Amino acid sequence: MMRHGRVVACVLVLWCWCVLNGVVSAIDYKDALGKSILFFEGQRSGKLPNSQRVVWRGDSALSDGQLEGVNLTGGYYDAGDNVKFGWPMAYSVSLLSWSLIEYQQQISSAKQLAYLQGAIRWGTEFIIKAHPSPTTFYTQVGDGNADHQCWERPEDMDTSRKLYKITSSSPGSEAAAEAAAALAAASIVFKTVDSTYSAKLLRYSKSLFDLADKYRGSYQVSCPFYCSYSGYQDELLWAAAWLYKASGNRSYLSYVLNNQGWSQAMSEFSWDNKFVGAQTILAKEYHAGNTNLLKYKTDAESFICAVMPGSSSSQVQRTPGGLLFIRDSSNLQYVTSSTLVLFIYSKTISSTQTRGVQCGSMFFSAEKIKAFAKSQVDYILGANPKKMSYMVGFGTTYPTKVHHRGSSIPSIKKVRTKVDCNGGYTYYNSGSPNPNTHVGAIVGGPDVNDQFQNARSDYSHSEPTTYINAAFVGSAAALLA
Fold it and tell me: What is the pTM of this model?
């Protein structure tokens, strides 16, 4: 027994040395993955299911859509507010589905498959409801201006649930095409799980793509909150790429081939700009033998070269602590989306003849690209100058004064009296931590100097969003390989 004890002690000492010297990672990516998915349950709108794990939330917005005689209950609140913005919601669903498609084995091994499928389906059910006719798509529920003047729990919400929609005469190609992409990607997720539902998703996806493409026009409905800056060509390519992947219909392949001229080299991937996403999907098709998609492959690799440190064509600034920094407002949304693409592209090229990307005089192997992506995930989870996790509830130090209405006001299950629009500001202005820990929420993140205030009023840095988390899910899963 004594000898066995010495062996165990030696193993523990060796493991600790490895952790301290970076040989073994002490970060629990499985825990991070589970919490990043759990976050979506805290963002749910509508009638909550019996399986709901985020128990400080309650039913909310049960009459959404009644103003025009449609059922628009369900879906997700966008961020720390109580508005349902269809465009970024669909983008979040697209990213969740992409993550599951690429890393199903890892997600399944972490026992998160059913939870992620549930998160995707909560979004797709809403998107289907929002497309009641071939020429109509509801893109927003709630008045953003009115909502942003209030601080109240979604369960108490009494601000206008005004509806916004696009039609054949009032188009918004970006929103419709993104919804098409989301449903096409989700149809792949459910193909072997529920073939009937998968077929329904694909049918609605095709209809939304037709609405986006036939009645072209830039989406300006929800401005000033989500305005289109990159135009709609990126969303059309992104949707067509997913529809080809989901259906195998070569008309969608012809679409992306005939419109290669739209593709542009980019240094960001975001809710507004989908070029990099489409390029990454189509580059995989190029490597699979569709060599006439070379333009997309070239542009995808331009993105890799733009974000990789040491590249002669690097375009993205980094903080002193090494975090990619694209812009100050909610910067982690660009970090998590970039990281997801880096992981997926490194996976794509690891089995090719080149096994890497040439950026001028620098060659980045698939492993180097993956290593840099890992450094970004590690930064978010605590390997940073402040030694704090930017995921709520992960690690020992994390944001406690998150800019999030429902999280910052005591649960309706504890304080049953209504907290009205103005009454909520008592909690907003409080210096105390949020009474509800919104586990898994990834906030906007630190500034360009790696500094973070942990202030509820600092929404640019302390507000979580669905699309920050959605992009992170695939990155956490990739590190379980």
Answer: 0.94
